[in-house]
């Protein structure tokens, strides 16, 4: 638990019901420039709306997904690690024309590879340090290297599982890079302090903006308004699913019946040849006359003759049946190599369409997915707007 507290202490103060941030014109302009790089028609109004929406999403993360404030994946980097990198990128790009003094060189003799290995406890195979191990890590002060308050516990808890393992194996080059990045960040924010103030940009606001952007996607996924929901769904979305009734599915089917139209049967002819050349010669004759005439001249029998040329959806498990079932009407296709090395020439003469039954699994599944997505979007819009109205923010 102490490790969690360490990370939380490193995070910026995220918005709660009683703490809403009003971003300055300069901060909005900065982010407008950033967003416009990815979407040229992104307006200033859209920028303000996105920043406000992100505050809503952060508040909901506090309430529903607090683990995201620490890290988005157990094996990934901590959220504070990504936040610092995001802010560093913002500052570098925005103040690129300002000449800053070089960061002081780090005296690596203050903390050698030997010291690092001596300070690190045995690698935790479950990716979790014990309270005693955390206490040991917290006692190692890295401030002389980073230039800012920072402990070995914070460094290790920020890392991905892969980086943490490498550090335990004595990867001192990785250690120096990580420390160098933190030193660069501290040097930059310290050197730009006056410029930030004069520009009307607050570092804590940039941290808040970065956190909002980083948590935006996972929170939109949580509410079911961003990703396709064919895979795993959040408990929130599963709760929405339970609200969908048989009557809802029936109404959806009636309104969208055309979406449930499908091929039920085709009438086709086809021949399998042992060589591509034989199949090509047959096809050329069929093109010049008809496949029926070609079959007659070659004294061949269509592979679908036993069912009078009819192929139903239930027969669609066989390769040749799958091919003719996928063809457009009247299209003469081939030669097509079969899985067992033969060559197919085929033509679908007629296609019969039908509708999935209202009580079929296909209707239930597809209608439920569509209804969940609609309900998720509607619920999200309503809840977001109510929250924004409460805090006198706009979209």
UniProtKB/TrEMBL annotation:
Keywords: Signal. Residues 1-18 form the signal peptide. It comes from the Bacteria. It comes from Pseudoalteromonas aurantia. GO terms for molecular function: peptidyl-prolyl cis-trans isomerase activity. The keyword ATP-binding does not apply. It holds the Pfam family Rotamase_2. The keyword Transport does not apply. Residues 245-347 form the PpiC domain. This is PpiC domain-containing protein. InterPro entries: PPIase_PpiC (IPR000297).
